Amino acid sequence: MGKYLVKRIVLLIPTLILVCLVVFIMMRCLPGGAVEALLYKLQAAGDTTATTESVERMLGLDRPAVTQFFVWLWGVVRGDLGNCFFQNETVSHCIGRQIVPSLELGFLILIISNLISIPLGVFCAAHQDSVSDHTIRIISLLLMSIPVFWIATIVLIYPALWWRWAPPTEYVHFFDDPITNLKMFIVPAILGAVTNCGMQLRYVRTVTLETMRADYVRTARAKGVPQRKVLFHHALRNAMLPVITLVGGSVAAMVGGSVILESLYSIPGIGALVVTALNNRDYPLVQGCVLVFSFIVMVINVIVDVLYKKFDPRITLE
Questions:
Q1: Comparing C-alpha atoms, which of 298, 303, 296, 249 is closest to residue 270?
Q2: Residue 53 near residue 35, CB atoms below 8 Å
Q3: Separation of alpha carbons 143 and 311, rounded Å
């Protein structure tokens, strides 16, 4: 296990370098640029001395692209992601401030989604083709079909019109005021969970049914093992292996994929930060955010592999 973890950690380095290169190139290929955007803002503010050359020197974009990349990469190695073009702060400080709300929202969505989908998926597998099974599957299909932006907008507008209620719009840290913090996050977390758990519920049901048809499960039943023990001790543990893969892949998406929920519910998360940075062509900020996303995805993949070994000792990690 130790050698495997060291090997995976070493492989993270070239992967992250490749991600840095791809993001660096793609940002420069976008139409428009940071120089034009900042020059327009300076001239709109009344700065008549600002020119394209002066703005390029100020942003460090007057050097060749290859030099810019290696200067930024060397900063990443030293833990310096650079300075934001349009905000008077470092990229590290900006990401560190706004990734906490995104992580909290993603964590709540993950917990609620699993609490709904895994028990219901196992229940449907244990009561295959019953009325409750068909009902839950129809509801899950509807949840998969509903766009999250539509249901989030409906839930935000109609309670405000009918009952004069809306979730708080000012972010408060959990440790400062847990109640106010949860009031802000609980509604978007539930919405994100119910729209994500439809596919996961059907997936859990499918893999549980496949596992329950295995020979060792039939043998356990033939020996007179109670149905509950067969389901939870024998079938569910082995069925969790593909579910772990699905959950692991969804975690990374939840960290940066809740842009709509963050925007509608005024959550100052990193997803909304990336959208703003892209619109402003803030190269260092976008590059830093994507680098953090990539690192999180890679770490989650390593954790998923370790969990495989935990659930199935037969698996060898080399």
A1: 296
A2: no
A3: 30
- Cα 177 to chain centroid distance, Å, stands at 25
Nearest Cα neighbor of 191 from 151, 241, 131, 231 is 151
Please, what's the largest Cα pairwise distance for the chain?
87
- Residue 45 banded pLDDT, cuts 50, 70, 90: low
256 vs 277: CA distance, rounded Å: 14
pLDDT at 252: 60
If residue 45 lies in a helix (H) or strand (E), which one and from where to where? none
Burial class (CB in 10 A: 0-12, 13-18, 19+), 139: middle
CA contacts within 13 A on the Cβ side of 281? 19
pTM exceeds 0.70:
yes
d(CA 257, CA 263): 11
The confidence score (pLDDT) of residue 286 equals 85
CA-to-CA dists, residue 54 to 58, 62, 205, angstroms: 6, 9, 61
Polymer length in residues for the chain: 318
**In sequence order, which residues have a C-beta less than 8 Å from that of residue 291 and are 6 or more positions away?**
16, 19, 20, 23, 76, 81
